[in-house]
Amino acid sequence: MPSREAGATAPISMTPIERESQARQGGAHRVLVLLAHPSPDRSEVNGPMAAAARRIDGVTLVDLYAEYPAFDIDIDREQARLQAHDIICFLHPLYWYSTPAILKEWQDLVLEYGFAYGVGGSALLGKLFFSALSAGGPEAAYRARGYNHFTIRELLQPLEQTAMLCGMTYLPPFALYGARTAVEEGRLAGHVADWTRLLEALRNGTLDIERALGLPRLNQDLDMLIRPTAAASAAGRR
Amino acid sequence: MDGFLFHAFVYLCAAVVAVPIAKRLGLGSVLGYLIAGIVIGPVLHIVGGAETEELQHFAELGVVLMLFLVGLELQPRVLWQMRARLLGLGGLQVLATLAALGALAWIAGLDWRTALAVGLILSLSSTAIVLQTLSEKGLMRTEGGRAGFSVLLFQDIAVIPMLALIPLLALPVLAAPDAGADAIQAVAGASQADAGASHGAEQAHAQMSLVADLSGWSYALVVLGAVAAVVLGGHFLTRPLFRLIAASRLREIFTAAALLLVLGIAFLMTLVDLSPALGTFLAGVVLADSEFRHELESDIEPFKGLLLGLFFITVGAGIDFGVLLQHMLLVLVLTGGLMAVKGALLFGLARLFRLPIADTWLFTLSLAQAGEFGFVLLSFSLQNGVVAPELAKLLSLVVALSMLLTPILFIAYERFVLPKLSGEGADRPADDIDEQGAVVIAGIGRFGQIINRMLIAAGVPTVVLDHEAGVVERMRRIGIRSYFGDASRPDLLRAAGIDSAAVFVVAIDDRDRAVQMVEYARRAHPSLRIVARAYDVDHYYLLQKAGADVVVRELFDASLRTGAAAFEALGMHPFKAEKLLRAFRRHDEETVAQLCGLWDENVEMAKNHALLERVRARTESEQRIMTADRSQLHDRTERGWTPPPKGYAEKLDDGGA
To answer: Least packed by Cβ within 10 Å: which of A219, B126, B446, B451?
Structure first.
C-alpha cells in the first residue's frame, strides 16, 4: 500500500499520463465507496452496484446505514477511511435532489473544520470525488424544459462546491435515469457493467480525468473516457 | 505429626487418583470419593477405626459449609416461594416414610419404640450426596432437583425434634448407660457419626450446652433468640465487618472471617441444640443479597469441596466388610427394601405434587437413600438405649450402602430413564419440541419475552425454552410457543433445533448457566450466531470468552436512557442529552473493550489492581468528557456539529482546483 502522501497528493494538474505513472509507482489508487440506502431490501439498483463494488480489488465499500443504524457516525473512523483512500464516491439514490439523510449527516460530522477545510484542513486535498446515483425521473425531466428544471449535475452543485472547498477534484455524477424501471427495461446489467469498468479505471488510473471534468455525467460515453491500458502505455513510451 | 502427614497423604492420594478416574468413567465425583474410601479402608486397611470416625465428624463440616453456600444462592424471596413444597412435600415425605418403615420394622418384630426410631433414622436422606450430585450434574434447577432440595431442607429442620424425641423412646432393657457406651465402641466406622461440630448430638450436648437444664418454654425462647441473632447479625453486622476486612486487602483474613462466620454460627447452633447446617443455611440466605456473596462463595467453596470429599471418603472407609460378609444377604435385602419403600413413597408424592414425569424419576431416585443424618440419629439412639448394638451395626451398614448406591441411581436416571422418556414422549409433551425455529431463545423471563415478541412480530419463527414450568404455562396461555426444559441440557437444545437454528439467544438470568450454555453451543455449533445477555462487565467478559458473538449488558441501555431523561428533566435540550448519551456510550464501550485485556477471571475484580487502576482512570476521563470546557474544539461531546471558529470565513480562499 502506498503511503498516504503518495496517494493523496497525486496532483490534479498533472496530465493523465503523469497521474497514471504516479499511480503505477505507488500502486493502484484506492477507491472508497460510501453506500447510503436506507431500505436496502427494496433496492434494485444500488444493491447490485454495491455488490459489484465489493468484488473489485482496491475498492472499499462502506454501507453507512448498516454501520450507523442510529446515525451515530464515528468521526475518527470515517476520517481515517478518507485518509486511506484517493478517490471518494457516494453511492445512493437521489432523494429530493440530494443524498439520503445519512450522507448529509456524514458530511456535517466528518468534514470538520481543521480536517477537511479551513486552517490546517488539508486532509482531502487532491483527492477525487464523485457521486454515483440512481434517479427516478427520465433523462428528459432533468433539463431546463423538463419538470425538474435542472440537470442532475446542476442539482448536485452543493456537493460540487463541498468538494471544491475541501480541495478535491469533482467529477460529474455517474447517474442512472428512470431507475424504478431499469430492471424491467433491461438497463441494469449494462449500468452495473459500466460501474465496474468505471471503478476499475479509476483504480488503475486509466480514466481521462481532464476530459471527464466538464461532462454532465460520467457515463454518457465511458468508452471515450477510459483509455485502453495498451494505448496508455504506448503513449507513455512515446 | 508423622501420623498426620501420613493420613493426609493417604486421603489426598486416594481422592486425587480415584475422583478423576470416576469422573472420566462418568460415575461422578461422589462415587469416586466413596470408592476411594472403600479402597483405603476396608480393602487395603490403610485407614479405618477411630481416626476415621474422628475425621468423619470433622468432615461433616463440609455439609455445614455446603448448606451455607446453598443458602447464598437462595434469596429470601425464593425461599419464601418454596414454602408450600418445603412443608408439604418435605413434611409428607418424612411422615409417610416414618410410618411405612416404622410399621415394617414393627411387623418384623421390633419393639414399637425401636421401630419408631428406625423409621426416624431411615426416613432422612443424604443432603451431602444429593446436593453435590445434583449441582455437579446441573440438575439443581430442574423441577425434580428443586423438589428434592425442599425435602432435604425440611429433613434438616426435622432432625431437631427427632433428637428431642429419641430419648423418650428408650427401652428399659438397653437403658443402662454402660451398655450404651460399650455399644458406641462396638459399632464400627460410619455408624459412629455422633455430634462433633456438625450435627448437634450427644457429645456436644453433654460437653457444652446452654440449654441442657432449661424448661420447655425458656428453651424455645433461647432457640428463637439464637435464630434471631443469626438473621439480624447476618443482616446488619456482617456487612460492615466484611467491608472493613475487604478494605484491609488481606485476602486470607477475608477467608478467615468467612470461615469464622460459618463456624461461629455452627457453634452457636450446637450450643442451643439446633442443627448447625440449618443455622449456616439461614445465614447464607440472609447474605444472599449482599455484595460479598460471590467473595464468600469463592472463599468457602474449596473448603466445602475438600471437606465434603473427605466426608465421602470416610463413609466409604467406614463400611465394615466383616459385618457385611457375615450378613451379606440380610444387608442387601434390607438396603434394597429400604430404597424400594422410600422410592415408592417418593414417586407417589411426586405424582401427588404433579411433577413432570422426568422430574418424578429424578426426585425418586435421588432421595431413596438414607443419609448422614441417619448416622447421627443412629448413634444417638444407641446411646439412649433405643436401638440394640447388633441392630445398630446392621443399620449403619444399610445406611452406608444406600448412600453408596445413590450415585449409581443418578447414573441410571441419566442413562436409562431420560432417554426412554424422551424416546417415548413423556406425559408432558412440551418436552418434545416439534417446532424448529430460526432463533432459539433460552429464558423467557421479562428479558426474553421482549426479544421473542419482537422476533415474532417481524415474522421470525422462534423456539423458546425456560426451566420454569409456571412461566412456560403462562406464556403458552397468551399464545407464545414456549417449551419447558432446562435449556442448559444439550439434548434439549438439540431437540429445540439448535442444529438448524441461525441464532441462539441466551437470555437467562442464571449467570453461570448462561456461560456454560454459550460454551456448549459454541463448541457444538461453530457457525451458530450467539447473542447473550450479560449481567455485568465481569459476566460480559466471561460470555465473550465462552464464544458469544454479541454480548449485551442487560441494564446498560436502560441506564443510559434514564440518564438522558435526567438531563432532559434538568432542562437540557433533548438532542444535547442525546449527544452526551452517545459520547458516554462510546467511551464506556471503548473502555470495556480495553479492560478486556486486563481482565482475569481467576482474580476477583476487587483484587485486580491493574484493572482497578484503569477503572479509576476511566472514571476521571468520563468526568472530563462530561464536564470539559465546551468551547474547546476537540471536546469529545461537542465533536460533530461544532461550528467553525468565529471569523473563519475571512480566511477561506478559493481552495478549489
So the answer is: B446
Task: Give residue-wise pLDDT tens across range B106-148.
Answer: 998 888 888 999 999 999 998 888 888 887 777 876 788 888 9
Reported ipTM: 0.71
| B320-363 pLDDT per residue, tens | 778 888 888 888 899 999 999 999 999 999 988 888 888 888 89
CB contact under 8 A, B657 and A164: yes
CB contact under 8 A, A75 and B655: no
CATH 3.40.50.1970 fits B428-554, yes or no: no
Residue with grid cell 448519551, as numbered in its chain: B581
Phi first, then psi: what are they for A133, rounded to 5°?
A: -135, 160
Q: Rounded to a whole number, what is the largest CA-CA distance in chain A? A: 54
Assigned C-alpha cell, B603: 482474580
With 0-12 / 13-18 / 19 or more C-beta atoms within 10 angstroms meaning exposed / middle / buried, residue B73 is middle
Q: Residue A110: which region, alpha, beta or left (left: phi > 0; alpha: psi -120 to 50)?
A: alpha
Where do we find the cell 441464532? Answer: B503
Question: What is the distance, to the nearest Å, from the Cα of residue B259 to the centroid of all Cα atoms in its chain?
Answer: 18
- Give the range among A199-213, B197-211, B391-405, B539-553 with minimum mean pLDDT: B197-211
Q: Which domain holds residue A43?
A: 4-233
* CATH number of the domain that residue A81 is part of: 3.40.50.360
Between B622 and A63, name the one with better pLDDT: A63
The domain ranges of chain B are 2-198+275-420, 428-554, 555-640
Is position A238 within any domain?
no
Locus of grid cell 410399621:
B103
Residue A97 lies inside a defined structural domain of this protein: yes
Nearest to B641 among A108, A117, A168 (CB): A108
Contacts of B640 in chain A (CB under 8 A): 73, 75, 108-109
Structural domain includes residue A68: yes
Alpha-carbon distance of B648 to B625, in angstroms, equals 26
> Is residue A139 assigned to a domain?
yes
Provide the number of CB pairs (under 8 Å) joining chain A to chain B: 39
Class of domain B2-198+275-420: mainly alpha
Q: How many domains does chain A have?
A: 1
